[in-house]
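Re: weekly structure request thread

Next one in the queue (260 aa):
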Amino acid sequence: MPLVDWLLRHSVTMWLLLQSFVLMTFCFHSATTFPKGCYHAEESGYKTFRCSNAQLTEVPKDIPNDTNKLYLDFNQIAFLPIDAFRNLPVLLELDLSHNAIVRIESGAFRGLLEHLHSLDLSSNKLVSVNKDVFSNLKAKVNLSSNPWLCDCRLQELIRTVDLVAGSSGSIVCDSSAKEEHVGKPFLQVVTDMDFCSVYKKTTDIAMLVTMFGWFAMVISYLVYYVRQNQEDARRHLEYLKSLPSKQRKSEESSTISTVV
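Done, posted below.
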């Protein structure tokens, strides 16, 4: 009986220690999974992952896949690679405002196309973005307060995305082929001119100039070739005239047979 009591007491102790160890391991893992300054919470019934002002330079890799709202604003993220937000099947809102984003790869938002409702890319460093980045994206997009280059590419992009109401006035030309457009809202500028039409005309003119250049080069070569042959023929005739009569006839016969 004393042995049984001793075994029971020590078994209970070992079990409690094991539970404590498992709990500590789980807590430690949870604490170290998220970057410093990030936390997971439930707000108004939505599972939210906040990393605002966390000094991030890239999108975190261990975002809980049940996240509904993701806040990555006020960081130093500069690049969004392909599948940057994979495995987030129920994400509804994505805030990437006030970062340093200069480039977004096509496919960066792959997997979010059907369910994402809101995408905030305002106050970044976007100059030009391929329209394919937002292809089939159903979310309302905020592109305001970026240093946009106003050209055909931006015009195609604006036609592709569904802009957040009231944000279009803050999509301003930071640079443009025409200095008069700088500082003006893009939608105001595009009412007076079609950037893509101008781009097409410029491309057509460049193609015509290139074709004319090639044509002129071919003609110049032909003229040079003909003149060079005429000069060679003249020299040969002069040479033949300078020969004695019999040798000249022989040379002429040889020349004729060679030509034939």
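The first strand starts at residue 39 and ends at 43. The helical segments are 2-33, 152-160, 186-190, 195-241, 245-259.
Next request, please.
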